């Protein structure tokens, strides 16, 4: 008697169908989800994560929320997460991985497609309904650990060689969580009438730069955890 089996396409993941030597007793094909062949087909023992842990997707800066196919095993204190982020070029990307349950509320406050979930491989899609996890009641000390005070990392002045009469812009690059507020001061006096700070971009603009505008400026970043500043000397030339 001749027995014919359908041949499965070879898997590119960590689990796959190995060419056997001898009699093929059981063959099963599946393609309904990632690593579907760990579900106990052909009498094999089904993969069960250790108690309290969870199997999650883990990718850095994926192009789409459903394009991650790398896996990790989160520990018993963590849950799966998907976070919408922006790369250095300003393009939207997605970060898959594990986070501590205590930070899930702050993650969901980021907006866009950002959430925590506690079922296997649940952090892969923005359109499905998720079992979203929120943070348990925790002390303010624990919450503060997940946040960072502000740091003024760099100041950018344009143009670099200032001529009187030109328009000058000053931008402070700042890190911190919660997002810091940014203010500017001039040492010894108030900002001039030709100085404007955009409330959205926090860029200081000096129109028709005059000798009066020469001086020492200070950029100040602040949030609930503290503040930081960087001093800038601006000097024009005739």
From TrEMBL:
It is found in: Membrane. Keywords: Disulfide bond, Glycoprotein, Immunoglobulin domain, Membrane. GO terms for molecular function: cell adhesion molecule binding. Its main location: membrane. Residues 150-223 form the Ig-like domain. GO terms for biological process: cell-cell adhesion. The keyword Membrane applies. InterPro entries: Cell_adhesion_signaling (IPR051275), Ig-like_dom (IPR007110), Ig-like_dom_sf (IPR036179), Ig-like_fold (IPR013783), Ig_I-set (IPR013098), Ig_sub (IPR003599), Ig_sub2 (IPR003598). GO terms for cellular component: cell-cell junction; plasma membrane. The keyword Glycoprotein applies. Pfam families: I-set (PF07679). It comes from the Eukaryota. It is a single-pass type I membrane protein. This is Ig-like domain-containing protein. It comes from Mytilus galloprovincialis. The lineage of its organism: Eukaryota, Metazoa, Spiralia, Lophotrochozoa, Mollusca.
